[in-house]
């Protein structure tokens, strides 16, 4: 009975050991699976945080890239509009040109008030005023032309900004041409005293 009991106990213990060995891998597999489940969401959360941080960095970079050309575009657009306005002003005349012209007229009247010949009066009163107006308008035209060329030379300008700059360059060039012609009496000469 002792042998049988011992065998039965040994058999029971062998079965228990077999069951324990069989259960151990299952428990280990379950523990490994739990560990994987625990680490995968943590890794996913960490990766998600990294992705959110990377997305934030990308958003910041995109915003910086969008802000830089926008500010540069605003400056270029403003310069193009200013060049076109200065070119138009050079063609139509300015308040400054009118003031300078009236000053020259007054100076001419003072110089020739008592003893000036008709030719001298024409030259001093009208010719100097005419040339002064042409000089002031020519300065405005030259500034318009320079600003327009600067906008056209700098890269990365939108098409409409370049179009306005071209208009400013054309108006400035035309104004400069007319001012030079007027200053040197190429288009119209001063009247003479005999005519």
Give the key terms.
195 residues, mainly alpha, 4 helices
Give a brief rundown of this model.
By secondary structure, the chain is mainly alpha-helical.
Q: What shape does the CA trace take?
A: elongated
Query: Approximately how much beta-strand content do the residues carry?
Result: under 5%
Radius of gyration: 46 Å
Mean pLDDT: 78
The biggest sheet, with number of strands, parallel, antiparallel or mixed sense and barrel status, is: none
What do you see in this structure?
The protein is 87% helix and 0% strand. It contains four helices and no strands.
Topology summary:
Blueprint: H1 2-92, H2 95-111, H3 118-153, H4 159-183
């Amino acid at each position: 009975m002792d042998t049988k009991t011992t065998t039965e106990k040994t058999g029971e213990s062998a079965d228990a050991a077999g069951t324990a060995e069989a259960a151990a891998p299952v428990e280990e597999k379950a523990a490994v699976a739990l560990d994987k489940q625990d680490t995968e969401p943590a890794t996913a959360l960490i990766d998600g945080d990294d992705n959110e941080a990377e997305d934030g960095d990308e958003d910041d970079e995109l915003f910086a890239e969008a802000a830089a050309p926008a500010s540069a575009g605003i400056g270029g657009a403003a310069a193009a509009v200013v060049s076109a306005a200065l070119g138009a002003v050079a063609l139509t005349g300015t308040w400054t040109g009118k003031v300078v012209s009236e000053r020259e007229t007054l100076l001419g009247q003072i110089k020739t008030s008592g003893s000036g010949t008709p030719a001298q009066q024409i030259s001093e009163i009208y010719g100097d005023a005419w040339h002064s107006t042409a000089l002031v308008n020519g300065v405005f035209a030259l500034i318009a032309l320079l600003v327009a060329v600067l906008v056209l030379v700098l890269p990365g300008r939108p098409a409409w900004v370049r179009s306005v700059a071209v208009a400013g360059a054309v108006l400035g060039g035309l104004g400069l041409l007319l001012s030079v012609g007027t200053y040197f009496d190429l288009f119209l000469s001063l009247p003479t005293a005999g005519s």
